[in-house]
Amino acid sequence: MFGGSLVLEFILKYKKENTIILIILIAGIFLCSTVYGVNNTPLKEKGNYIEIYIEKGDTIWTIAKKFTSKEDDIRKTVHIIGEINNLNSWDIYPGQSIKVPAK
């Protein structure tokens, strides 16, 4: 009982200061998630696509390589190409058009 009353007394004494600190922390977390969350939106959700036509010798991998920056993972681009084009297999054919994420 003694320890519980000390905790209660501490909470009551510092309630106002703790509330202000908590509000500042929540605001900071929200601000950081908003600022950094915008850049992490998947390309599929952004809708920034380019339509290209498949040429002889093209593969999803070679196309993804052309549209992936050095900082990004090419496997992610391959996956996105498959998703936005509803590909059931990785087979593509000359003359076929597909959407790819814009750089």
Describe the fold and architecture:
The N and C termini lie far apart (64 Å). About 8% of the residues have low confidence. The protein folds into 2 domains: 38 residues; 58 residues, LysM domain (Membrane-bound Lytic Murein Transglycosylase D, Chain A, Roll). It is rod-shaped. The protein is built from 5 helices and 2 strands; from the N terminus they run αααβααβ. α4 packs across α5. A two-stranded antiparallel sheet has the order 1-2. The chain is mainly alpha-helical and 103 residues long.
Describe this protein with a few key phrases:
rod-shaped, 10% strand, 2 strands, 2 domains, 103 residues, mainly alpha, LysM_dom_sf, 5 helices, LysM domain-containing protein
Structure, briefly:
The chain has helices at residues 2-13, 15-39, 43-46, 60-66, 74-84, and strands spanning 49-53, 97-101. With 103 residues, it is mainly alpha-helical.
